[in-house]
Amino acid sequence: MDSGTDKRDCVDEIVNIEKYAAEDRKVPDHCKGYLISVNGQEILVENSIVTHKELLQFAKVDPTVEVCVRVYIRGSKPRVLQPGEEVKLTLPGVERFRVDEKCTVGVKVNNTFFQLTVPTTGEGVKRAAIETGVNIELDFVLFLELDDGPAEQIDR
After folding, report:
1. Which residues does 93 contact at the CB level (< 8 Å), separation at least 6?
2. What is the radius of gyration, based on Cα positions, of the chain?
3. What percent of the chain has pLDDT over 70?
4. What is the pTM of this model?
């Protein structure tokens, strides 16, 4: 550990992030390891960041198969992770992860809510919106808006 590390946010133990979330405790930035749950199986990781790809490996899922990877955050609805996305385990409330073949999420397009099976593509979202009665065309620009960040254009 370098001398610039804040030792107040370091522990010499393995931290169970689900337990910390349940106790509303801050997960330290540095520790011996992080115990995470993926599909109910406890996995020990060394880094405070896990990737979508790593979660697929932990769940023993073929990375070429389209699956739904969700992160559960205390007090919030589960959030679907996108390929290439990372999750910082030290974020408040991160509890556990689930990897399934498909899952259903609520989607809002032009103020119309509907359920959508993911993973899907931008075109899949637009087709589902049109089938639901949203007045858009397939060539319309689509943006992903999350509560915790800026809107991102969906290209595919």
Report:
1. 21, 73, 74, 75, 76
2. 18
3. 89
4. 0.68
Give me 130's structure tokens.
């049109």
Task: Report the pLDDT value the prediction gives residue 153, as an integer from 0 to 100.
Answer: 82
The single-letter code of the amino acid at 16 is: N
Condensed to tens digits (0 to 9), the pLDDT of residues 47-84 reads: 999 999 999 999 998 877 778 899 999 988 888 888 88
97 by DSSP, 3-state: which?
Answer: strand
Helix (H, G, I), strand (E, B) or coil at 154: strand
Amino acid letter for position 91: L
DSSP for 6-66, please give it.
Answer: -GGGB-SSEEEHHHHHHTTPPPPSB-SEEEEEETTEEEEESSSEEEHHHHHHHTT--TTS-
Residue 78 DSSP code: -
d(CA 151, CA 125): 16
What confidence score (pLDDT) does residue 80 get? 85
